[in-house]
Amino acid sequence: MPRAAVQAADLGEEPALPWSSFGPILAVHFLGTLGFSLAIPFLVFIVTDLGGAAWTYGLVGATYSAFQLFGAPWLGRWSDRAGRRPVLVASQVGTLLAWLLFFGALSLPVVGLTELAGATLTIPLLLVFAARALDGATGGNISVANAYVADLTRTTPELRQVAFGRMGMAASLGFVIGPAAAGLLGGTAWGPRLPIAVAASFAGVTTAAILLWLKEPRGRCPKGPPAPDVLEAGLSQQAKPCHERPRKRVLREGVTQKPVAILLGATFLLFLGFNFFFAGFPVHAATVYGWDTAELGVFFAILAGMMFLAQGPLLSFASKRLDRRIVFAVGLGFLVLALISYQLPPGPISYVGAACFALGNGLSWPTFQSRIAEVGGDDQGSVQGAITSASSLASILGLLGGAFLYPALGGALFLLAAGMFAVVLVLTPLWFRSITADAPD
């Protein structure tokens, strides 16, 4: 148990997060999100300027998720054997190289190779696809970072909701600051190249931060027997020597276990609903609300800011007073209300919907992540990788399917997403069944 938690227990106080260990991974998560969010406002314009069309932009986004679909499980399994820190370093190096490749694409002349469905396939555009593919293939840093947090809270599971909420806060803060900073950086003579260069520099800083400050969680046994303090704590059954475990053990016995398998199904439904919303709402805002890009940017900045508050103080307050199943169900209820609100005429209700969406996501997702960590046992990397893979598949289908369905369904697309959240809400007892005895051996 972390020293701070031990001291708190001795004094009869509630245990607190071990910030000396948790702070670095929080900073890494924030910097990674900040770097990515710097490029988001310019991506559609970059793709268009390099010869792409609207469908090409969607395909660029899907490329990242497609390669993450296969990369995340492999990186997760690797982190269970080699340790979290070296895999996080390798993943960040991949992100750094991807941003450098992206920057190089913007420095090349736009030379057309062929025409395809209204788009011109150019050498720089091919490099952009390659950069997003590389970043996706090495993009398991999310799943490995989640596994790291699960490792830090393995002896204090009551802190997991709060810990994952703080990770969500870091991501939300990055999405608040990033687009605003991108607007300033993109207004220079360098154009979109400067935000991309800054994103690459953040990837470099993140890599250095992992090397300098991030330590392997105590109790991990990447290539040897469990640490003595873990054995003394009575956790020897969880901390089996990793070198004794078959390479594909988790695929056969861990991820395919019923508790993990049903959580994969819930993850898929949740992310499919989220991505239906994110695919359809920008078009809905432009055509129904009459918003321009500035108003849409303000909306998403406000949404991210409210999510920051929901994942922090509100989640911490709720987690101390309510059962996790109640917190999760209430969060999903707010998400359903948010999506229903977008069937109403435009006006202040749009921001009421944003508040409901922020509350719903801020309460439900960190709580669900704590449940995933609970069933992951000593296979956190593999389980988190599988979860990331399921979310990537849902993102691909949700973004492409949402773009295809919105012209036909209009705002009813949000009701379809609300229905998915409602299904997960109704099945809440299933996701949290046998809370104390589901971890893989």
Quick summary of this structure?
With 441 residues, the protein is mainly alpha-helical.
Explain this structure.
The chain is globular. 52% of the residues are buried. It has helices at 3-10, 19-49, 54-82, 84-106, 123-137, 141-152, 160-185, 193-213, 228-232, 249-254, 258-289, 293-321, 324-341, 349-376, 380-409, 412-426, 428-431, and strands at 112-116, 119-122. It has a single domain (16-214, 246-431), classed as MFS general substrate transporter like domains (Growth Hormone, Chain: A, Up-down Bundle). The protein has 17 helices and two strands. With 441 residues, it is mainly α. Helix 4 (84-106) packs antiparallel against helix 6 (141-152). The chain is 75% helix and 2% strand. A two-stranded antiparallel ribbon has the order 1-2. Strand 1 and strand 2 form a beta hairpin.
Chart the SSEs and their pairings.
Blueprint: H1 3-10, H2 19-49, H3 54-82, H4 84-106, E1 112-116, E2 119-122, H5 123-137, H6 141-152, H7 160-185, H8 193-213, H9 228-232, H10 249-254, H11 258-289, H12 293-321, H13 324-341, H14 349-376, H15 380-409, H16 412-426, H17 428-431
Antiparallel strand pairs: 1-2
Helix pairs in contact: 2-3, 2-6, 2-7, 2-8, 3-4, 3-5, 3-6, 3-15, 4-5, 4-6, 4-8, 6-15, 7-12, 7-14, 11-15, 11-16, 12-14, 13-14, 13-16, 14-15
Key features?
single chain; mainly alpha; two-stranded antiparallel sheet; 17 helices; 2 strands
C-alpha end-to-end distance: 20 Å
Question: DSSP helix count?
Answer: 17
CATH topology: Growth Hormone, Chain: A
Just give the CATH class: Mainly Alpha
The CATH architecture assignment turns out to be: Up-down Bundle
What's the CATH H-level superfamily name?
MFS general substrate transporter like domains
Instruction: Find the structural class using helix and strand composition.
Output: mainly alpha
Task: Give the neighbour order of strands across the main sheet.
Answer: 1-2
Query: Roughly what is the average pLDDT, rounded to an integer?
Result: 79
